[in-house]
Write a structure and sequence with these properties.
about 15% strand; 9 helices; 3-stranded antiparallel β-sheet; alpha/beta; about 220 residues; Rossmann fold
């Protein structure tokens, strides 16, 4: 299995769920840029410029600047890639534009990690993404995301810590419509083309059950 795993896909595709499963099973460090961004308002080291970006851009459903995301990724590589407790890093939601994909790959080349990359694209239709996002929930305590499906729709408390489940502030319908323009299937195509061109792309059918998607992800990576 490659050392740097990059999970991509439309919002609600389940890439976060699958990224966490792979990280836990194979002792990789899971890095969700979405969680890092949402945590910035409570981070005493966050700069005024970063806080402005979070408040004005990300919570409105728009993408944050490429340099901002790339900086998070670069710091994560510096922090975790050489730690003996991890076999690698699973990036969840780190690449959402072609420029991010190219800049991150160029950075990894400087670290001799460009041959250690696998990009896992979990793909669903935009309609399916919209339906999932308007119904999924997040734990108010541990931030665990609970996807909406037949297996989870009747859950009333977080299965991980027992915390209260709420709709995420960026999962409101008007916000999701904006996100689908920026992060839907059409916007992902140049990224898929790029990773296909450099020979690291693995495409997974995300319309299946969570377990079936998980099996296909493992098969593709192993």
């Amino acid at each position: 299995m490659k050392q740097i795993l990059i999970f991509i896909g439309p919002p609600g595709s389940g890439k976060g769920t699958q990224a966490k499963k792979i990280a836990e099973k194979y002792k990789y460090r899971h890095v969700s840029t979405g969680d890092l961004i949402r945590a910035l308002p409570n981070d005493p080291t966050a700069t005024p410029e970063e806080l402005k970006i979070v408040n004005e851009v990300s919570f409105a459903g728009r993408l944050v600047p490429d340099w901002f995301i790339c900086g998070l990724v670069f710091r994560a590589v510096e922090r975790y890639v050489k730690l003996s407790e991890y076999k690698g890093i699973v990036f969840d939601g780190a690449v959402r534009t072609l420029e991010q994909a190219e800049r991150i790959q160029q950075y990894l080349e400087t670290k001799d990690l460009d041959k250690e990359v696998a990009a896992v694209a979990i793909m669903i239709s935009d309609k399916e993404a919209f339906d999932r996002l308007t119904k999924r929930r997040v734990c108010s305590s541990c931030r665990e995301i609970i996807p909406w499906n037949e297996e989870t729709k009747n859950i009333t408390a977080c299965p991980k810590c027992g915390g209260e489940l709420k709709i995420r502030p960026d999962d409101k319908e008007e916000v999701i419509k904006t996100r689908m323009v920026d992060q839907g299937s059409a916007s992902l195509q140049p990224i898929l083309d790029y990773y296909q061109k450099i020979g690291v792309l693995k495409i997974i059918d995300g319309m299946q059950s969570i377990d079936a998607v998980g099996r296909d992800v493992e098969k593709a990576l192993l």
